[in-house]
Design brief:
heterodimer; A: mainly alpha; Arc Repressor Mutant, subunit A; 4 helices; globular; B: alpha+beta; seven-stranded mixed beta sheet
Chain lengths: 113, 860
């Protein structure tokens, strides 16, 4: 892909991957928790919302309101799931990084010298 | 059910964009527990999220607007340069003042734990200024009090030292004389070398610490400065530099401040002779840690009572006084507070004019862009967006103006420091300090918002339909009100500043014309302290010989001596008379006193050398001395009367002379001049009038005294005219500063007026074409425009006069012999402003009158 669309930012990548992993059950709190646990990065709360807003405007994710749950007092929750364009964007970003890292120590699997 | 959110959280959530509000609320409810603290944390998070979301939404638009604004400002170069320059002028004045005030009022003093430093002063009852000296025994005794950690003092005078052994043409560095405890008390350590020791003081070693600036300038900042020899202005004496003071150090002098100091010299003469009559400058004490001012004050009060009981009773007529402790900062700067407030107030007024000017320029610009605003509104922009555009433009201009002002101030740092009087220059901060930059940024932002909101609001309120129908580049008549109000305010503030400047200038001129009662031209004061002695006849002989030596110096036309010269601002030692609240002084003088000082003889004669020699019971009264000592007696009839003082033979008045005031700002004292010798000789001062074109220096005097076998401890020579100048520094500065401010305001107002009128004339070309083609003559047009343009000016002048009338109550304290509400001054300033305004409007009005109706209407 020679003329790649604009690459994702670091935070955008993290949030997009978290949304992908949560597979349609993602909203702000679990997204932030997952990024903290898996990636070891603690993002400010505000930046999660801003990023979700931006990703939705770029049409990489979409949101809908869930069925009211009994746990939360019958309130609907705004959930996010990734769109095909989002998956493409993740792949493009990943590929770009891999190509750049190819043949350097950064590309070696973990645990080897 | 989920518990309802607290009002705080609901309020915070309201800031979150509507599309996200629900979600943020739920998330936050999940995350935090209950309770007040949790509510606060929830609200804080909601605010944070709201701020990031808002910025995310508007960032792109704001960035575009900034780019647009910069681009359009670059296109309108003339407008941008004019606006930036005028705003830079307004804000620059404020920066300069702030950088000085910042040091004086807000910055901690350059001493360790300055809150524990106090000044021990002798205060007359009901007077807030310390009364000259305090008995040295207070300083000695205070050191022993449990509340006091340390005590020090610095003298009023400085010793001169030169760097080369050869005295010819040498430049002298001035070292302030301090006690050896000074740095210890202040908690300051030399950056190189060591502090003075008690041994230095006891052994009378001439040891010096140089200031950091002098160290860098004279010694190239080298470490081998320690141990360097320097040569005193008193012949045959050498000093040794033992260290270098820190960069920001200054010697704390309470009563007077030495303008030009190169360092400090250890000196303990006061303590060595701490007998009942020796006196010292108000000492600086350090309170023990944890001791409050009140606790220390009560110990000092007890000491005061004890010492007064053991001291000889003060001469009758001396007003009662108490010894008090005053925090050091208050003692240093307290009396300048009103002064600083006045300067700051005036600077703020200049900024206000600068803001008004920026606003009126933007307003004019907004009118030329009405068409664009109408288009924006028609295309669905909200009014707040149009206002935002105007504020962004104002912000860019204001920030550019601030940068210009900061750079200009930095470039002119030295010039400004040279012009500022001691009070400000000593404490003026380097312009680019962090605090000054923050202050500038805040000031510029506030100004830009003030200057941008009015034009933006007007643009947002345009009648979209009529503007779009009229077409681009044209404007209706009679839409002057917004800019008229701003112009009126600008004129009002200018009137205020120019009137204050005129009043201060008149006050200064009045002071300079004050009759001093003596002739300061070519008059020098020479002070020579001969070694202490208890042998009064010997002392008297020596001081008499010193006078003869002085008279023998080539160029000295006339010389005289007195215990204290009334021209030196020194307090006379003896009250003349104790009347009902009246005070007069007696001065012990030698022959040729009246002649040397150039005083006028009003009646009778002066005292003869024979009378002086024999200390005859005669005296010469000053004019006001007559009315105090001989109430109801005319000046001419006073001669030949006898004055009776308790314990003295009747003293015959042989003459009456003019009243003398030490400087322009000092009062005259009722005085009695008596032959010297009738009093003590301790502080004998000499006055000498020098032939035109010649000068007398410390070196000449010292050399000649030594040749005559006299070796004074210290010699000082000063020109009376210099002291007179120094006494007017504050008045002169105030007049100059207000004049500069007034001038800036005047220029800004003229520019604003001219810009508004020429822009509006350019935009109303069509209207003029119509008027001319309908039969108006160019003269009619000119008159109409002048009338329209001058209306806000006249209103502004009236408003400005009223404001000045109100401000006059604060200004009056700084004026001498001028009524701050003098109607003639107001009228003259208003007339001058009217002329400037007329000149600024005439050019655009003439241009309008020259409109060619054919050309103007062809554009339709």
């Amino acid at each position: 892909m020679s003329a790649a669309p604009e690459l994702l930012g670091e935070v955008e990548q993290l949030v997009l991957l978290a949304v992908l992993r949560l597979d349609g059950l993602g909203y702000a709190v679990p997204i932030r928790a997952l990024i903290r646990e898996s990636a070891g990065v603690s993002l400010p709360r505000g930046s999660i919302y801003v990023t979700l807003e931006r990703l939705e405007r770029k049409r990489l994710v979409e949101s809908w309101f869930s069925e009211p749950t009994s746990v939360r007092g019958g309130k609907a929750r705004r959930l996010f799931r990734i769109r095909p364009a989002g998956i493409a964007a993740i792949k493009a970003s990943k590929r770009a990084v891999d190509r750049l890292a190819a043949g350097t120590v950064a590309a070696l699997p973990e645990g080897r010298p | 059910m989920r518990p309802p959110a607290s009002p705080l959280v609901r309020w915070a959530l309201f800031a979150v964009p509507a599309s996200w509000r629900e979600m943020v609320r739920d998330d936050l409810a999940d995350q935090f527990g209950r309770g007040r603290l949790a509510d606060c944390r929830r609200a804080a998070h909601a605010f944070g999220i709201a701020a990031s979301l808002h910025w995310e939404f508007t960032r792109g638009a704001v960035m575009t607007e900034i780019r647009d604004a910069i681009r359009s400002l670059v296109r309108a170069k003339g407008f941008a340069i004019g606006a930036i320059a005028t705003f830079a002028l307004g804000i620059g004045v404020n920066l300069a003042v702030f950088s000085a005030v910042d040091r004086m009022l807000f910055r901690p003093l350059p001493y360790a734990d300055p809150g524990q430093l106090v000044v021990m002063g002798n205060y007359r009852v009901g007077d807030s200024r310390p009364y000259g000296t305090i008995a040295a025994s207070y300083l000695v005794q205070a050191r022993g009090l449990p509340a006091i950690a340390d005590a020090s003092m610095s003298e009023w005078s400085a010793d001169g030292y030169r760097l080369n052994e050869n005295p010819d043409g040498a430049r002298y560095l001035r070292f302030v004389r301090v006690s050896y405890t000074t740095l210890r008390t202040l908690g300051v350590h030399p950056v190189i070398g060591q502090d003075f020791t008690e041994d230095d003081a006891r052994a009378h070693r001439r040891r010096l610490l140089v200031s950091n600036a002098v160290w860098k300038r004279e010694f190239g900042g080298r470490a081998d400065v320690v141990g360097r020899r320097v040569w005193s202005s008193t012949a045959g004496q050498e000093g040794e530099i033992v260290g270098v003071l820190p960069d920001n150090f200054f010697p704390p002098q309470i009563v007077t401040a030495t303008l030009d100091w190169s360092g400090i010299a250890v000196n303990e003469t006061t303590l060595d002779v701490a007998g009942p009559r020796s006196a010292t400058t108000p000492p600086i004490l350090r309170l023990q840690t944890g001791v409050t001012l009140d606790a220390a004050q009560s110990q000092i009060a007890a000491l005061d009572v004890r010492l007064r009981a053991s001291m000889p009773a003060p001469p009758t007529g001396t007003p009662p006084s108490v010894v008090r402790l005053v925090p050091l900062r208050e003692a240093l700067f307290g009396r300048y507070e009103t002064y600083v407030a006045l300067v700051f107030g005036a600077a703020t007024m200049v900024l206000l004019v600068g803001c008004a000017n920026l606003a009126s320029l933007l307003l004019v610009r907004a009118r030329s862009r009405e068409h664009r605003a109408a288009l924006q509104l028609a295309l669905g922009a909200t009014p707040s967006r149009v206002i935002r555009g105007a504020v962004i433009e104002a912000l860019i201009l204001a920030l550019a103006g601030s940068v210009v002002a900061l750079l200009a101030l930095r470039a002119s740092d030295h010039a400004i420091a040279a012009w500022l009087p001691l009070l400000f220059s000593k404490y003026a901060a380097p312009v680019l300090s962090a605090r000054v930059i923050v202050f500038t940024a805040l000031l510029a932002t506030a100004s830009a918002v003030v200057a941008g909101v009015v034009p933006g609001w007007r643009a947002a309120r345009v009648d979209v339909l009529s503007v779009l129908q009229r077409g681009a580049g044209r404007i209706g008549a009679g839409r002057q009100r917004g800019s008229g109000a701003i112009l009126g305010m600008e004129i009002a503030v200018s009137l205020l500043l120019v009137a204050c400047a005129t009043l201060a200038g008149r006050s200064l001129i009045g002071l300079l014309r004050t009759n001093l009662g003596y002739d300061p031209a070519r008059l020098y004061v020479v002070t020579a302290y001969l070694p202490e002695s208890t042998d009064l006849p010997l002392l008297r002989k020596e001081y008499g010989e010193a006078l003869d030596v002085l008279r023998s110096i080539p160029g000295v036309q006339s010389a005289t001596a007195a215990d204290v010269l009334p021209v030196t601002r020194g307090a006379a030692m003896y009250p003349m008379w104790a009347g009902d609240g009246h005070r007069g002084y007696r001065w012990a003088v030698t022959d040729r006193f009246v002649e040397t000082l150039g005083m006028h003889v009003l009646a009778g004669r002066t005292m003869t050398p024979a009378e002086i020699q024999s200390t005859a019971p005669v005296g010469v009264l000053s004019e006001s001395g007559v009315s105090l000592a001989l109430p109801g007696v005319a000046v001419a009839d006073a001669v030949g009367r006898d004055l009776r003082f308790p314990g003295e033979a009747p003293r015959r008045v042989v003459g009456v002379v003019s009243d003398v005031r030490a400087t322009y700002v000092d009062p005259t004292w009722p005085s009695l001049y008596v032959p010297s010798g009738a009093d003590r000789f301790r502080f004998l001062q000499y006055a000498a009038r020098i032939a035109p074109g010649l000068t007398v220096g410390v070196g000449d005097v010292t050399k000649r005294l030594a040749a005559a076998g006299l070796f004074p401890q210290r010699v000082a020579v000063s020109r009376v005219a210099d002291d007179l100048d120094a006494s007017l520094v504050d008045q002169r500065f105030l007049a100059e500063l207000l004049s500069a401010f007034g001038l800036v305001a005047l220029v800004l107002a003229a520019i604003g007026l001219y810009a508004v009128q020429s822009f509006s004339v350019a935009l109303r070309t069509t209207e003029f074409g119509v008027r001319l083609s309908l039969g108006a003559t160019p003269g009619d047009l000119r008159r109409m425009l002048t009338r329209q343009m001058l209306a806000p000016v006249v209103v502004g002048l009236a408003a400005g006069s009223l404001v000045t009338w109100w401000v006059a109550q604060f200004l009056q304290a700084f004026l001498n012999g001028v009524d701050a509400r003098d109607p003639w001054t107001y009228a003259a300033v208003a007339a001058a402003l009217l002329v400037v305004a007329l000149a600024a409007t005439l050019i655009p009005a003439r241009r309008a009158a020259r409109t060619d109706p054919v050309v103007a209407l062809r554009a339709q």
